Amino acid sequence: MPPHHLTAPGFGPLAGIGDEAAPGADGQLAALRRLGWTAIELRDVDGTALADLAPAAFGALARRLADGGVTVAAVASRIGNWSRPVTGGIGPDLAELDVLAERCAVLGCRLVRIMSYPNDGLPEREWADRALARTAVLADRAARAGLVLVHENCAGWAGDRADRALRLLRAVDSPALRLLFDIGNGVPHGYDAPVMLRDLAPYVEHVHVKDAVRLADGSTAYTLPGEGDAGVAECLRILAAHGYSGALSLEPHLAVRPHEGLTRAGTDAADLFVRAGQALVALLKDLSGGPA
Predict the structure, then answer these.
(1) Residues near 144 by Cβ (< 8 Å), separated by ≥ 6?
(2) How far apart are CA 59 and CA 55, in angstroms?
(3) How many CB atoms lie within 10 A of CB 127?
(4) What's the confidence (pLDDT) of residue 255?
């Protein structure tokens, strides 16, 4: 079997956010090939967000992926993310979603990562109301485009609490809104990822894999999957037990962390990405050898 099928029973393909390995498409695809994987999650190419690529550059990217037999598991958008507080207008998010709807149709991709708007001084209730209302508008537009928005446990109103994520799903009440669970986000954000995932697992449509430890000064250091304190193996067991069948998308944060302005993407970035992918494969082999 090709290595990209070496997953625990029932999981979908192994993928990775390509710009964590290299800025350009050539380097991103080369890192995937080193792992034997044939799925990618798209965020930035040559430092430009997917939605902002010039039409000719996007067309060239789409052809490269098709020619290489690489599928797109998801698109990591900036909608509602750490750079777009809830006090800003929704216009940039709607515009980005419209572009991504066209581009996802070309790429054969239906999942678009979103977040739920960090606060910017608003009272708690107003923050909640705005985040819920905006997500409903976005989900309605996504539904009409045949997309599914996957909300990540990261920046925003529903980012670090399971009860809020569930309230978001209930309030929007649309099949075009599901959850993206990033296993490693609990460490920097201060919660226990396996505990949160037990409440959210039935609604998870996409998964990011990273691992980390909290340092004595309160900062976060990222590690290979399975070597940190995020509970990667336990989260994978929980997902398997709930019948999760989506992709596992590697986002190791070892060389590239956009929210911190870290974009060191030399040859060592690709090597670190590949090492993280190999560690994930090793974890999955261990899991598949034991009880689910």
Answers:
(1) none
(2) 6
(3) 21
(4) 73
The kind and range of the H/E element at 166 are: helix 162-172
Q: CA 62, CA 134: separation in Å to the nearest integer? A: 30
Give the distance from CA 33 to its chain's centroid.
20
CATH number, domain with residue 147 = 3.20.20.150
Question: Half-sphere exposure of residue 206, counting CA atoms within 13 Å on the CB side?
Answer: 30
**φ/ψ of residue 56, rounded to 5:** -65, -40
Could you give the 3-state DSSP secondary structure of residue 136? helix
Number of domains in the chain: 1
Q: Which domain holds residue 63?
A: 3-289
Where in the chain does DSSP place strands (E)?
14-16, 39-42, 44-45, 48-49, 71-76, 111-116, 148-156, 177-182, 204-209, 211-214, 220-223, 248-250, 256-257, 262-263
Asked if 248 and 7 count as a contact pair (C-beta separation under 8 A), the reply is yes
Please tell me the distance from the alpha carbon of residue 189 to that of residue 275, in angstroms, as a whole number.
Answer: 25
Q: Is the whole model's pTM more than 0.90, yes or no?
A: yes
14 in Cβ contact with 64 (< 8 Å): no
Q: What pLDDT digit, counting tens, does each position of 195-232 carry?
A: 999 999 999 999 999 999 999 999 999 999 999 999 99
Q: How far is the C-alpha of 248 from the C-alpha of 239, rounded, in Å?
A: 11
Cα 189 to Cα 5, 86, 99, 153, 230: the distances in Å are 32, 19, 31, 9, 11
pLDDT at 5: 41
**Closest CA relative to residue 97, chosen from 133, 132, 144, 62:** 144
The backbone torsions φ and ψ at residue 248, rounded to the nearest 5 degrees and listed phi first, read -110, 115
